[in-house]
Structures are given as structure tokens and as C-alpha cells.
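seq as requested:
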Amino acid sequence: MTKDELITYWLDSAEANHASMLNMFSSGEYVWSLFVGHLCIEKLLKAYYVKEIDSTAPRIHDLYKLAIRCDLEMSEEQMDSLQYVTLFNIEARYEEYKREFYKKCTRAFTESNIKTIEGVRAWLLEKINN
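C-alpha cells:
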């Protein structure tokens, strides 16, 4: 794949995850909505990485570490958001965290965190498109 094809691949996959996040939220699948929201951000970071650094995106899921590898300038709020959203990957995936995470994922909690994901998404899309 060319560099442009790889960027398109990551962007298309992120967009599909974004749509799934919203659909899952609408259907009350709050835990998985946040998990897929994490995937959306991860893939946007990988698109940025391919665009700016190298055509082989790192195989890591920690959003903050991925952003560091992208050499992105970030505010404290953006750093905190990336670290927080990374927790959705861990808490939705691993059994020892799932029970508590399911209890935490009310509609209001999920809606609030989707707003965070949307903010990070907008920031990354702006970076990718510049």
C-alpha cells in the first residue's frame, strides 16, 4: 500500500468505528460504545503517524503513548483525555475490570465521555487534514 492508501485505510476504519460508537450508544450498548470510541481515536492517531512519521504504525493501544510517538503537541487537557479514553480499552476488555465498568457506564456517563471522544476526534482530524 502507498502512504496515501494507508492513511485512507486508517481514516475509513476510524470513521466506521465512529459510526458504530454512535449506533451502540443509541441502542444502549454503553460499554461497547466507549470501547469502539477508543478504537476510533487509536486509528486516527495511526493515520496521523503514517502521515507524519512512518508508514508502519506502532502496534500499541495506549493513546497517550501513541500520541507521544506521533510527536503531537498536546495541551494538558488533551493528554488527560487520551489517558482517560485509553481506560475504556482496558476496562471493557479484561474480565477483572468489566463488572465495575458496566456499573459505571450509565447513559449520562457514556454521553459525557462520547463528548470527550468527539473533541479528541475533531482535534485529530484537524491535525490530519492540515
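The chain has a mean pLDDT of 95.
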